[in-house]
Design a protein that fits this description.
Layout (H helix, E strand, L loop, with lengths): L1 H17 L10 E8 L4 E15 L2 E8 L16 E7 L4 E6 L1 H15 L10 H7 L2 E4 L1 E5 L8 E2 L2 E7 L2 E20 L2 E16 L2 E12 L3 E8 L5 E11 L3
Antiparallel strand pairs: 1-2, 1-14, 2-3, 3-4, 4-5, 5-7, 6-9, 8-10, 9-10, 10-11, 11-12, 12-13, 13-14
């Protein structure tokens, strides 16, 4: 009986691990070929699984970009600097676009970078501490195996105001496109395909893009395409290689 229960438990946890649409092995490196047609640039980006921890019955995973030169002001709220996932007991992997804690950290970084450029508005940590709480909302993309093709993805909105800074992010018109086999340099994967409209308003400069992403179990993002309103491809990202920690 004990042997049977043990076998069942092992099978259960193995199945649960396979349902994760992210990599949970700390130290793993995911290499991507990133192409930017506007800048006429192609580069290799390395994303490292930098943190894996358990909180509130969820596994939280953080991936950090290892290419410092690609971190610019335009990367604020972009997924090319940091990627976060949360995997819970309901077997749903949440791709966290932005949450309240992360939003405050981002605003602190943005204000610190730009404050010296604002005449008469030097960086004041105490002022930021008082005003950084003016934020609301969170945006996540739920990734599940039991989706129905054409099913809508919940919309989300996040806004934050700190001192003279104001920023907002909104995801809408999201849908699950079903499952699709995708072949990239790292191999062939059966992926969950999602699409959504992403609108950013940073420093009162709105920008809208249309995002399509492919996620594989146990790996995470395999492919991504970003287009404008007319459908013209602006940026793309494909998985080149997976390097496990030694």
């Amino acid at each position: 009986m004990k042997k049977t229960c043990l076998t069942f438990a092992i099978a259960f946890f193995a199945l649960a691990a396979q349902a994760q649409y992210c990599n949970t092995e700390k130290g793993t490196a995911l290499l991507y070929i990133s192409s930017d047609r506007q800048a006429n640039e192609t580069r290799i980006d390395t994303t490292l699984i930098s943190a894996v921890r358990t909180q509130d019955r969820k596994t939280l995973v953080e991936q950090t970009l290892c290419n410092p030169k690609t971190r610019g002001k335009d990367s604020i709220f972009d997924d090319n600097s940091t990627i976060k996932f949360a995997y819970g007991t309901d077997k749903t992997t949440e791709r966290i676009i932005i949450d309240e804690n992360w939003g405050v950290e981002t605003m602190q970084t943005l204000q610190k970078e730009l404050a010296p450029q604002e005449k008469g508005m030097p960086f004041d940590p105490e002022e930021l501490e008082r005003t950084a709480g003016n934020h609301k909302g969170a945006i996540t993309i739920p990734l599940r195996k039991d989706i129905t093709e054409g099913e809508k993805i919940p919309s989300g909105k996040f806004t934050i105001k700190a001192s003279f800074m104001k920023a907002g992010l909104e995801v809408s018109k999201g849908r699950y496109e079903g499952f699709e086999k995708v072949t990239v340099p790292a191999g062939a994967f059966n992926c969950l395909k999602v699409s959504y409209k992403l609108r950013k308003n940073i420093l009162y400069l709105p920008r809208t893009v249309y995002v399509t992403q492919w996620y594989a179990e146990g790996i995470g993002l395999v492919k991504e395409e970003t287009a404008d309103k007319k459908g013209y491809l602006k940026q793309s990202k494909t998985l080149l290689r997976i390097i496990s920690p030694e």
